[in-house]
Write a structure and sequence with these properties.
It is a single chain. This protein is α/β, with parallel strands linked by helices and 275 residues long. Helix content is 36%, strand content 17%. It is built from 12 helices and 8 strands. Strands 1, 2, 3, 4, 5, 6, 7 and 8 form an 8-stranded mixed sheet that branches. The longest helix is centred in the last third of the chain and has 18 residues. The protein starts with a strand and ends with a helix. About 10% of the residues have low confidence.
């Protein structure tokens, strides 16, 4: 059976609505078990392909061990404007924890900083931190001072972020693509090859409970034979580091990072300047 993601809802809204937002027109549904409706989703990213089951679970049911073993992620929708909504989430959490999913996403329309009748954003963020969920707002409030043109590293929001989180997962049935090594800067920026197996990707990922001391870009670049996959595994922390820099420092940091990737792929520094 293909790997699965469970979509559930703490409200009267069907979790199937989230799946529809993700993939558009819904294909023919398949009832895997009583109360579990599945929709196929084909991931075709730059680096791999995989076929996933997006499963709508309308009510709290106990699934078979066979299906439970396929679950890689859970996506739970709630309404932040409903009083005691976190208690309702906890009721679902008792069931969802049994799946021991690696991907855990809590979705709502919007979390306000102050809520007259529901829960505020800080309360939800504290819950997510405790339960190791990621909060995704489908229609997040935008800061009036935010300038998207000056943001060199804009982050995905809404349903795009849900898709992004799922695509970033290392699916057990993924098939890596064969990619040509970049020969100039333009090709490098559109994604280079990482000649590795699925186990290499897994070894490069973050593993909870281990000592994950992330080296700086300078430490990595000082190595004589820096590995592309090692650089790739540090990309998220590099992005977070760059987001706190002034614009001019961000650009210099980005140039240094691109050069590090180029060197890791065996490129010549003089050659990259000619592209």
């Amino acid at each position: 059976m293909k790997p699965s993601v469970i979509f559930s809802s703490c409200t009267q809204d069907s979790p199937t609505n989230l799946i529809k937002l993700m993939i558009g027109e819904l294909p023919e549904a398949v009832e895997l078990e009583k109360g579990i409706i599945s929709y196929p989703w084909h991931i075709d990213s730059k680096y791999y392909k995989a076929d996933i089951q997006l499963c709508s679970m309308e009510s709290k049911i106990i699934s078979s061990p066979g299906f439970a073993n396929t679950v890689q992620g859970v996506v739970l929708y709630f309404d932040s404007e409903i009083p005691n909504s976190l208690k309702v989430i906890d009721e679902w959490l008792v069931l969802l924890k049994e799946y021991q999913a690696e991907i855990k996403i809590l979705v709502c329309k919007q979390c306000k900083d102050k809520s007259e009748q529901g829960v505020n954003k800080l309360q939800v963020q504290e819950w997510c931190l405790k339960e190791e969920f990621e909060l995704v707002e489908l229609d997040p409030a935008i800061d009036d001072d935010y300038d998207s043109d000056s943001d060199d590293f804009p982050e995905a929001t809404g349903i795009k972020r849900v898709c992004q989180a799922l695509e970033a997962h290392i699916w057990p049935n993924l098939v890596l693509k064969d990619r040509k090594e970049p020969t100039c800067m333009a090709n490098l920026l559109h994604g280079g090859v990482c000649k590795s197996t699925g186990s290499d990707f897994e070894s490069a990922s973050f593993k909870p409970g281990e000592d994950n001391i992330e080296p700086s870009l300078e430490d990595i670049c000082d190595k004589e034979n820096v590995d592309f996959c090692e650089l790739f595994s540090q990309l998220a922390s590099m992005k977070e580091r760059a987001s706190n820099m002034p614009s001019n420092e961000r650009k210099a940091f980005a140039e240094q990072l691109v050069l590090a990737y180029w060197n890791a792929l065996g490129g010549d520094e003089d050659q990259i300047l000619d592209c």
